[in-house]
Amino acid sequence: MEPLARAITWEAPEHHHYEKSGDWFFALAIVIVALSIAAVLFGNTLFALLIGVAGGALAVSAAKRPSVVPFAITVRGIRIDDQLYPYTTLRAYHIDEEDEYGPQLLVLSKKRFMPLMVVPLPSEYIDDVEDILRDKLPERFLQEPLFMKLLEKFGF
């Protein structure tokens, strides 16, 4: 019997990046300007300003390329970049091998503001990751929220 690996590490982009054309940014600008004008017409100048700032932030975020993040599954917990999530702060896991972007590890956290972590998983590490997690967390069927899937379809 092979001894279990103590840690499995890999690197992957922090999210799926879609190259956006000038038309995409032009459409975003039209929507932002239209919403801002509507807010001004309804007498809500502060909301119009907020829409403009949010639209600018969205454009900057959409143009930025994702950085490459180190991931690790260890006997102590799951490490994403420099943050370690001990198994005591996690509830369950699921490996989604059927995702259109490749295998993903979905981890349910006990934290209120970050309940689901989605980690891209290289296919060659699926069995090793499952061997470590099987002893540490219960496996439960988990899915990405529909809203996240919709955002990915729209290129965010």
* Fraction in beta strands: 25-35%
What is the strand tally? 7
Question: CATH architecture of the largest domain, please?
Answer: Roll
The CATH class designation of the largest domain is Mainly Beta
Main sheet: strand order: 1-2-3-4
Rg over C-alpha atoms, rounded to the nearest angstrom: 20 Å
Shape: elongated
* Annotation field: number of helices: 4
Task: Work out the helicity level.
Answer: 25-40%
Largest sheet: 4 strands, antiparallel
Secondary-structure blueprint:
Elements: E1 7-13, H1 22-41, H2 45-63, E2 68-74, E3 77-80, E4 83-86, E5 90-96, E6 104-109, E7 116-120, H3 126-136, H4 146-153
Antiparallel strand pairs: 1-2, 2-3, 3-4, 5-6, 6-7
Provide a brief overview of the structure.
The protein contains four helices and seven strands. It is α+β, with helices and mostly antiparallel strands and 156 residues long. The chain folds into two domains: 7-14 and 68-153, Pleckstrin-homology domain (PH domain)/Phosphotyrosine-binding domain (PTB) (PH-domain like); 22-63.
